[in-house]
Design a protein that fits this description.
single chain, four-stranded antiparallel beta sheet
Length: 259
């Protein structure tokens, strides 16, 4: 766990986070119609980079700790950090998580969604529905005075009650003009444990929910994480801020309501 002080953002900084968060949400919306059988994950990446540059933003993943592409594309059993590839062609029934992070004026907007390629299997649809519900339940715990453990407990309780498991190896994180910072936000845990939430804290909630075991393996590329049993995994993510009376989702698409 990280030990550096938690960053509390100013009103001006929160405005910058709102702007870049809305732009990241628009990028995901732009990519959604392109997710269909026959499209390569590299095509998705290249269109994301084109769109990002056209909107005056930068891709945070590109070059981050050596990551070679602009977005992460995690298909089926890939938990996270899948690298776009010209040879990886989407096919009917796949699920794909697309994870985007934009930088505008130095601030980061980080969001992801798992999309269906054509018509999903019943188990894939249930997994994605449960993952989105887990994110909602985690976000609903966010308010001043709550504990970080409350978020993870809400997610874990629901996921496991539905017969799924919660990845331990990757967690949510603080984010601002730094891509990954304090606090870590596990998607599992115990109520009443962990640091208290305070207004001005900004972080991601991005549960990774697996069909089978929660255990993962990372490939030799150093990035691609797969379920150990090669069963399906789904993820969804929002960047959010703790407010004086609750929570504000910074990557919510324009016109959408959450609660």
């Amino acid at each position: 766990m990280k030990t550096e002080p938690i960053i509390i953002l100013s009103t001006r900084e929160l405005d910058k986070m709102r702007h870049v968060g809305r732009l990241a949400a628009k990028l995901l919306q732009h990519l959604e119609p392109l997710v269909k059988p026959g499209v390569s994950t590299l095509q998705l990446n290249d269109e994301a980079e084109r769109w990002t540059q056209a909107h005056g933003a930068k891709s945070a993943p590109l070059g981050y700790k050596g990551y070679p592409k602009s977005i992460c594309t995690s298909v089926n059993e890939v938990v996270c950090h899948g690298i776009p590839n010209a040879k990886q062609i989407l096919k009917e029934g796949d699920i794909i998580n697309i994870d985007v992070t934009l930088i505008v004026e130095g601030y980061h907007g980080d969001t992801s969604k798992t999309f269906f390629v054509g018509t999903p299997s019943p188990k894939a649809r249930k997994l994605v529905d449960v993952t989105e519900k887990c994110r909602s339940l985690g976000i609903a715990e966010v308010k001043p005075g709550a504990r970080i453990g409350d978020i993870g407990a809400a997610i874990q309780e629901y996921a496991e009650a539905q017969g799924f498991s919660v990845v331990r190896d990757f967690v949510g994180h603080g984010i601002s003009n730094v891509f990954h910072t304090t606090p870590d936000i596990p998607h599992y845990g115990t109520r009443g444990r962990g640091k208290r939430l305070r207004p001005g804290m900004v972080f991601t909630i991005e549960p990774m929910i697996n069909e089978g075991t929660w255990e993962v393996e990372v490939l030799s590329d150093g990035w691609t994480a797969l379920t150990r049993d090669r069963l399906l995994s789904a993820q969804c993510e929002h960047t959010l801020a703790v407010t004086e009376d609750g929570v504000e989702i910074l990557t919510l698409p324009e016109g959408e309501t959450f609660f």
